[in-house]
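Extended Data, panel c. Modelled sequence:
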Amino acid sequence: MSLPFPSPSDPAAGRAEVLLRYLDFFRDIVVELAGGPVGE
């Protein structure tokens, strides 16, 4: 199950936190498309 797309209106401590939210989202999508976690 993938993470929900990060909402731009969610409060964040800074730009780095916003970037990490988007990276987590896209990393989750890539793992789903690849068929599972890398290295297993």
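The first helix runs from residue 15 to 34. This feature is highlighted in the accompanying rendering.
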